[in-house]
Amino acid sequence: MKLWGGRFTKETNQLVHNFNESLSFDQKFYRQDIEGSIAHVTMLAKQGILSREDKEAIVCGLKGILKDIEEGKLDIGPGAEDIHSFIEETLTERIGEAGKRLHTGRSRNDQVALDMKLYTRDQVRELDGLLYRLLKELLTLMEEHIHTYMPGFTHMQKAQPITLAHHLGAYYEMFSRDRGRLHDLYQRMNYCPLGSGALAGTTYPLDREYTAELLGFYGPTLNSMDSVADRDYLLELLSAMSMISMHLSRFCEELIIWNSNEYRFVELDDSYSTGSSIMPQKKNPDIAELIRGKTGRVYGAFVSLLTTMKGLPLAYNKDMQEDKELAFDAIDTVKGCILLFTGMISTVSFNRDVMEKSAKNGFTNATDAADYLVNHGVPFRDAHGIVGKLVLFCLEKGISLDDMSLEEFKAISPVFEEDIYQAISMKTCVEKRMTIGAPGEEAMRKVIGIYKKALEEKPL
Fold first, then answer.
1. Banded model confidence at residue 457, pLDDT cuts 50, 70, 90
2. Dihedrals φ, ψ of 280, to 5°?
3. How does DSSP assign 142-161, residue by residue?
4. pLDDT tens profile 165-214
5. What is the dotted CATH code of the domain comprising 5-101?
6. For the chain, where do the domains classified as CATH 1.20.200.10 start and end?
7. What per-residue string of b and e applies to 257-274 under the rule 16 or more CB within 10 Å gives b?
8. What is the pLDDT of residue 22?
9. What DSSP state is assigned to residue 424?
10. Is 273 a residue of the active site?
11. DSSP string for 192-211
C-alpha cells in the first residue's frame, strides 16, 4: 500500500510504478533516512507531540532495522516506492501502531531534502579526506624532488628549467583549491530542512533548532519553500567534483605523455598498468587513461542536473528525483579516481637523469643566456637575437648550449666568458629564481613549509 494511497481507488499501473519508483537507487541513503527519523521523533517527544513510549519504540525499531540492513539480515525489496516508505512500512510491521506516528509533522518533501543533504554532507567529508591524503602524498614527493631538474613547458614546447617539486606543486595548488571549494560548500549547505513540511511548514509546534542540533547542522533553513526545492548544494558538489576531475585528468595526461618512449620521464608501476593482448612489449597506462576518460562522466552529471533544475517552478517537483542516480554515480566515480590516482602517483618512478637531460637539450636555459648578456651590458633585444643565433648553431650541430666551447660562444658574441657555463647550468638557472612561488630551493622550501602548516588542519 502506498503511503499516499487513501486518495486513490485504483492500483498504480506497473509501468507507472516502475517509472516512478526511486527505491532502486535511493536505498543508498538508508542510513541517513534512519538517522533523520531518529532525530525527528526525539524532537517530537521533547515537544510533547509524541509519547515517550512511542518515541522509544520507534527509535528501538529504527535502530533494529539499521542493524539488520547492515548485517545483511534485511533485504531492501523492490515492492516499496522509495527508501522512506520501505523503512516506515518495515517499522510498522515490527512495532505496530507506533510506527504509523513516525511521519507526524513532516512531509516526504522535507524528508527527501534532509536525506539528500545528509548524504551529500557525508560525501563532502569523504572527498575532503581523500584529497587530504593526496596532498600529503604530493608533499612527500615535492620534498624528495627539490633538486630534480626538468623542463617546464608552454605550448607543449620546452620553455625554462624548473624542478619536479615545482611542477608537482602546481597540482598541489589545484587540489588545495578543490578542498577549499568543498569547505565553502560545507559551510553553505549545513542547515537543516526538516520541519519545512511539503512547502509551507506545519501546524505542529516543532523545535527545528533542536532537530538541527541533533543532526549536526548549524541551524534550521529559513524558508520552507526553498528548503524543499533547493539542490544548489548538490550542484555545487557536482561542480567541485568536475573541477577535481579536470585536475586529475590534466595530471594523468602529463603522466601518460611522460610515460611514453619518447619522453621516459616516468615509469608507472606494474600494479597500475596493463598489457596488450597481442603486443607483448606493451605496458599501457590504462588507469591514468581511465581517470582521464571518466572526467566526461562527471561533467555529464553536473550538466544533467543543471538542465533538470533550470525550469522548475517552486516548490518541490518530481523532476528533482533525477538528482540522485547521476549524482551517486559521479560521487562514486570521483572518490574512486582520487583513491586510484593517489596510489598510482605514490608508486611512480621518476627518471631524474632523463628529465635533466631533456631540459638541457631543449634549450630551456636560453633565457638565462640572454640574461647573462644583459648583465654584461648588452641590450635585451640584442641579447635575444644573439641567443637565437646560439640556438640555431646548436641545432645544426646537434648539441646543447652547455656543449658549446667558449670559442664557439665568442664567435657569436665576444661578451661571453668562462662564467657562461656556470650561468646556464640547470642548478644555477633554477636556484637563482628565488621569488616566492618560483622553483629555487629557498623559495620551494618556504612554500613546502606553508603547505605543511596547512595540512596540520585535519579534514572535515
1. confident
2. -65, -20
3. HHHTTT-EEEEEETTEEEEE
4. 999 999 999 999 999 999 999 999 999 999 999 999 999 999 999 999 99
5. 1.10.275.10
6. 108-356
7. bbbeeeeebbebeeebbe
8. 73
9. T
10. no
11. B-TT-TTTT--SS---HHHH
Output the pTM of the full model: 0.91
The DSSP bridge partners found for residue 151 are 161
- Angle value at C-alpha 234, between 233 and 239, nearest 5 degrees: 95
Distances (CA, A) of 408 to 391, 397, 411: 12, 12, 5
- The answer to whether the beta carbons of residues 132 and 459 sit under 8 Å apart is yes
What sign for the dihedral angle of Cα 378, 379, 380, 386? negative
Q: Which of 24, 51, 276, 349 is catalytic?
A: 276
Give the alpha-carbon dihedral of 410, 413, 416, 418, to 10 degrees.
Answer: -10
Instruction: Give the whole-angstrom CA distance, residue 72 versus residue 319.
Output: 32
Please give the single-letter amino acid code of residue 430.
V
pLDDT at 75: 92
Biggest CA pair distance of the chain: 101
372-429 per-position pLDDT tens digit: 999 999 999 999 999 999 999 999 999 999 999 999 999 999 999 999 999 999 999 9
Amino acid code (one letter) for 31? R
Reply yes or no on whether 155 is catalytic. Answer: yes
Residue 80 pLDDT level (bands cut at 50, 70, 90): confident
Fold (topology level) of 362-454: Ribonucleotide Reductase Protein R1; domain 1 (1.10.40)
For 108-356, which CATH class? mainly alpha
The single residue of 155, 271, 277, 405 carrying the catalytic annotation is 155
Set of cell numbers at residue 139: 608533499
**Count of other CB atoms within 10 angstroms of residue 77:** 10
From-to residues of CATH 1.10.275.10 in the chain: 5-101
Cα distances (angstroms) measured from residue 409 to each of 204, 357, 400, 457? 89, 21, 12, 53
Phi and psi based region of residue 367 (left: phi greater than 0; alpha: psi -120 to 50; beta: remaining): alpha
C-alpha–C-alpha distance, residues 369 and 229, integer Å: 62
d(CA 162, CA 153): 9
Residues 6+ apart with CB under 8 A from 446: 436
Contact 323, 116 (CB under 8 A): yes
User: In the chain, where does the domain assigned CATH 1.10.40.30 lie?
Assistant: 362-454
Amino acid at 94: R
* Cell numbers found for residue 194: 526538516
